[in-house]
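Collaboration report, partner site 2.

Our partner group contributed sequences for two proteins of shared interest, and the home lab folded both. The records are reproduced in the order in which they were received, starting with the first partner submission.
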Amino acid sequence: MTGAGRPTVAVPDGFTLVALEEVGSTNEEALKLATAGAATGTVVWAERQNKGRGRRGRAWDSPAGNLYCSIVLRPKRAPSAQVSFVAAVALAEAVESQGRPVQLKWPNDVLIAGAKVAGILLEGTSSALVLGTGVNIESAPPVGTSLRAHNIGASVATMLQSYLKALKSWLARWERDGFAPVRDAWLQRAIGVGQSIEVRLPAETLPGTFDGLDADGVLLLGTPGGVRRIAAGDVFLVRA
């Protein structure tokens, strides 16, 4: 954050930081800026959110001490939904740089020891994509975990820098080489591949086996009736 008593952050080339104490939602703020013509790479970073949100409109608890940021992007490559996998791999690398292995849960949750430590939310306008990211650093909801719970001492500013550095690298690789290297890096960290899962959709719950991802990042669900392709849904591991 800028101002007395708050750390400043040197972001990589190609990013412009908008540092705020509190917003309703960093995604909402970034969407407004994108609509007004904000440059690609604009990063909205807030100490707190009072109306933070996650996937499917869920509330995202957002006290001070955690990382909340949203980035304005205008990808040159389609489909833009693949950006969530790019971001998940970049975020995984940022956490792993602190000495802890992570797991990735489809489509874009980051886990430590099986508990969620970070999440990603993609939203868009007619001309831009907003990549929202939340990382539990100092605290977490009861069902999640935090970096501090695993004795990771990185600050919010350090994690933001590490994430943006990795994101810049992976976005460039995706735009240059396509989705295949992103998919491979994601699957190397994936939780549940080859295991029994449930995919919860708005109208039904589908049991099956997590058979991996197709070439576009769509989940492949093995069922008695054949492989089903799932583009959106919530995945739950079935414990034996």
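Second partner submission, folded after the first:
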Amino acid sequence: MNTDQIEVIERKISQIYTSCNNEDLQKNELPRQAVIMVGYSEQYLAAAKVIEANLHLILPRLQMTGQAIELILKACIAGCNQTPPHDHDLIKLCKRCVNYDYCLSEADVAWIFHLNHHFYKDVVTKTKYKSRYPTGSIEPVGGVCPEVDKFQDILDKLKKQIINNIGVEYF
């Protein structure tokens, strides 16, 4: 296999994917995007629960949990008819949600902060995405690894608030 052969494969498969007419695709309005994000969030958190008992899979669990929380926070923003940012910082997303009158407890934010340390950026070293990529230097990966159930409670709480905000007819 060489790079030319890879490019041929890429071109052929791209033609299959791009054969549909993108102009015919209907744009999802933001409240509908919020509902879709809630569904994705629930799937990622369910997957994190499946592997939680396997301690050697801690990094994938943290990654899936972080993805679930990122999506539920972005769903809150979309549920307010605002375009969610292309950002993975869970604390920044929490702040946006609170500014849109979503309620998170002190404990909720603390759990999200611990998760953000692994998912987005290490609090001490400032290394990003430690649950996805190995670090460039020898540094600890440790920190509090909250149980998935803590995040299920947060997800459920925010989902109820989204439903109250956009209306049950979207769900």
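Feedback sent to the partner group on the second submission included the following. Residues 108 and 154 are 7 Å apart (CA to CA). The two ends are 47 Å apart (CA to CA).
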